[in-house]
């Protein structure tokens, strides 16, 4: 079935619906089922709280499942020792470049698709989706080849130990060979989110994660008929699972029962649309690169204190991402609603959605922050039995949890800027708060001040607080309202 025709909801009813609360008769469980199944309603005409709920639930679950990839790998690889975990952590540092490209293209794709859907122009939305996928394939192919060829020197540059350089290169090469699936998984899910089909994006990650959970122990430890591949098996499991997810995404794009359907006549390169997306995504890529590269430099600072510190940091950051990715899910919900509302000519509705999502995020992250601070040691113990790694990672986890309250609004506002097509503002915020503040502060506290890896960790909540304060100030100024996508 296709979304209900526009004429079925009169403008007068749509206006009043913005302020209406979620209908009590629906019931919470009914709304949850609708969110997980995927709604066919026009999101620009639903009551705002209901629209946020219907988008946020599958988006939060999608982000949770995205983080499961990393957590599953570390959970199994952690049984192989600190050096194996360090291999995963260093490879993640290399993959941050890939994630930056994927997130940058995703920002542009979400903003452009959401704006076209808000304008009720499904044909242009489908053509935009094709251009985004084409760009993703071209860029990821180049990055995959470069990553395979330069895997060893990249690991060495990040401070890999002799064990990592001898035994971990295979893991890195397999992961880099699967870059096309990583990028397309990011990108096509962003297209679904921009269209409002968040439930499809969620189901894609559910499929990929299920396969990864099944394959990882089999290929790492050689269960049943599978070969024992050690840390390299984790890379093969992740790559195969993500590839299956991409095949499912392409299948769903071709179906006629979604908000966005790609047909054969849409599959052609349109240089003008591609160029517009490159311009919009370019700043998004820089923004993502600034963000992710800051974690790479932080890895380099921490790795100077040995494999135990690096392993503790690697596990702790995976746990933190497990908490923050649901917050990004709420941010993505606000981004979609803002983009679609701007396309429909109702900026005030989109702005209200952003502040509402920010309040919800504050509640979620405050709660998780308290849990992480109190239970840091047992949480670390789930992923490793090495007492030194547990102690080091628990310290990192407690310090990182202090930033959860301060970053709640900042994460939603960053997504909102991007959803409005203003990718420049969050990029400048990241440059100032991460490169100009966090990284220099991390190095100074770690080395000249002699605080070791703890000094590097302290710089993170300081930078997040600065990012949130800047985001609130600039979003209130409202220059994003003038952006044309």
Q: Could you tell me the strand content as a percent range?
A: under 5%
Could you tell me the radius of gyration in angstroms? 22 Å
Mean pLDDT: 86
Shape: globular
* Class derived from helix and strand content: mainly alpha
Which percent range fits the helix content? over 70%
Task: Write a structural description.
- The protein is mainly α and 485 residues long.
- Helices cover 79% and strands 0% of the residues.
- The protein has 19 helices and no strands.
- It is globular and about 55 Å long.
- The two termini are 29 Å apart.
- The N terminus is likely disordered.
Condensed summary:
Helix content is 79%, strand content 0%. It has 485 residues and is mainly alpha-helical.
What's the topology here?
Elements: H1 11-17, H2 28-37, H3 48-77, H4 82-118, H5 122-149, H6 151-157, H7 162-167, H8 169-177, H9 179-195, H10 198-221, H11 231-253, H12 271-303, H13 307-343, H14 347-374, H15 376-381, H16 387-401, H17 404-419, H18 424-446, H19 453-477
């Amino acid at each position: 079935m296709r979304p209900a025709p526009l004429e079925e909801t009169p403008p007068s009813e749509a206006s009043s619906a913005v302020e209406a609360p979620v209908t009590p008769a629906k019931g919470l469980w009914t709304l949850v089922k609708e969110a997980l199944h995927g709604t066919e309603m026009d999101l620009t005409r639903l009551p705002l709280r209901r629209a946020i709920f219907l988008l946020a639930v599958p988006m939060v679950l999608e982000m949770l499942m995205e983080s499961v990839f990393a957590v599953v790998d570390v959970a199994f690889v952690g049984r192989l020792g600190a050096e194996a975990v360090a291999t995963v952590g260093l490879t993640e540092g290399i993959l941050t470049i890939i994630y930056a490209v994927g997130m940058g293209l995703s920002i542009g794709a979400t903003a452009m698709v959401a704006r076209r859907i808000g304008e009720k122009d499904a044909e242009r939305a489908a053509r935009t989706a094709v251009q985004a996928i084409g760009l993703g394939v071209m860029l990821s192919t180049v990055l995959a080849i470069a990553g395979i060829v330069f895997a060893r020197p990249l690991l060495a540059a990040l401070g890999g130990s002799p064990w990592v350089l001898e035994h971990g290169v295979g893991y890195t090469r397999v992961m880099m060979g699967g870059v096309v699936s990583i990028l397309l998984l990011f990108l096509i899910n962003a297209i679904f989110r921009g269209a409002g089909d968040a439930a499809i994006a969620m189901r894609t990650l559910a499929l990929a994660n299920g396969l990864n959970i099944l394959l990882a122990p089999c290929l790492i430890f050689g269960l049943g008929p599978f070969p024992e591949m050690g840390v390299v098996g984790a890379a093969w499991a992740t790559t195969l699972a993500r590839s299956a997810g991409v095949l499912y995404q392409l299948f769903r794009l071709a179906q006629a029962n979604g908000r966005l359907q790609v047909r054969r006549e849409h599959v052609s390169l349109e240089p003008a649309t591609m160029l517009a997306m490159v311009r919009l995504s370019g700043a998004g890529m820089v923004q993502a690169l600034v963000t992710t590269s800051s974690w790479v430099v932080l890895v380099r600072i921490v790795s100077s204190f040995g494999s135990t510190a690096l392993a503790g940091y690697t596990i702790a950051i995976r746990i933190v991402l497990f908490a923050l990715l649901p917050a990004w899910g709420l941010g993505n919900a606000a981004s979609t609603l803002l983009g679609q509302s701007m396309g429909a000519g109702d900026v005030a509705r989109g702005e209200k959605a952003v502040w509402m999502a920010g309040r919800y995020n504050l509640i979620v992250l405050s709660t998780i922050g308290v849990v992480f601070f109190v239970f840091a040691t047992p949480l670390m113990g789930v992923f490793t039995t090495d007492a030194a790694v547990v102690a080091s990672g628990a310290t990192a986890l407690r310090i990182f949890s202090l930033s959860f309250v301060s970053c709640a609004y900042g994460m939603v506002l960053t997504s909102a800027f991007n959803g409005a097509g203003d990718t420049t503002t969050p990029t400048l915020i990241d440059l100032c708060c991460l490169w100009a503040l966090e990284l220099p502060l991390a190095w100074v506290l770690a080395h000249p001040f002699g605080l070791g890896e703890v000094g590097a960790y302290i710089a993170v909540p300081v930078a997040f607080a600065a990012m949130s304060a800047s985001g609130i100030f600039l979003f209130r100024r409202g220059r994003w309202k003038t952006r044309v996508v």
